[in-house]
Amino acid sequence: MVLILAAAASPSGLARDDAGADPGSKLTVALHVYDYAQVEGGEMARAQNEASTVLERIGIETVWRHCPVPGEQLTPADDCHSTVGALVLRILPQAMAERMARDNASLGFAQNGDAATPGFVASVFYHRVESLSVELGCARAVILGYAMAHEIGHLLLGTSSHSPQGIMRARWTEKELLSASAGRFGFFPQQGAKMRAGLESRTKVQAGLARTP
User: Fold this and answer.
1) Can you tell me the distance from the alpha carbon of 160 to that of 158, in angstroms, rounded to the nearest whole number?
2) How deeply is 189 buried, as exposed, middle or buried, from its count of CB atoms within 10 A (0-12, 13-18, 19+)?
3) CA torsion angle for 201, 86, 33, 195 (degrees, to 10)?
4) DSSP state, 25?
5) Which structural domain range is residue 51 located in?
6) For the whole prediction, is pTM greater than 0.85?
7) Burial class of 177 by CB neighbour count within 10 A (0 to 12, 13 to 18, 19+)
8) Which residue in 168, 83, 92 sits closest to 123, CA to CA?
9) Which one, 14, 51, 159, 186, has least CB within 10 Å?
10) For residue 112, what is the domain's CATH number?
11) Structural domain tally of the chain?
């Protein structure tokens, strides 16, 4: 979950930390997107690109799949049946968000999990993305992309994984979001290493569950 602060100093050197990360061999994660908020196609594509760029800097490549919500038809290109190693991202409209009784300032949340059964579903509240975009004059796609990356971080790091600085900070600042627009906001190398380990671990766990009769 991420909240927003109107103004504060953002950490210096974060971009250099991201750029200097040595992720080694890259891993790939499938991201199944259920867009209940019906985000415009071009905006969603840019948001996915923003999130992909953040994850690629720590050695995780992404495969995005649009999955049908009620009222939509599954097309032959939409492979949403295989869930081994996949993470689910739900983009929720205001009506669905309000039924979940979450913090009014949060942009989303991730499913709780543990080593045996890791969480794999994260949600982003699109109406709050829209409000923040107007408030700060930042593109919706940028905020949506970084919110998705933040929640993916929770799934791979654990829900109690906020950090004092960077994209996993619990409360983002206006200055940090402006840095995001310039591509200077992301995960620290140590977070990246833990996320890659988490991705490898969950793939093994899910594969084992899939083989269980």
Assistant:
1) 5
2) middle
3) 20
4) S
5) 3-7+16-71+81-198
6) no
7) buried
8) 92
9) 159
10) 3.40.390
11) 1
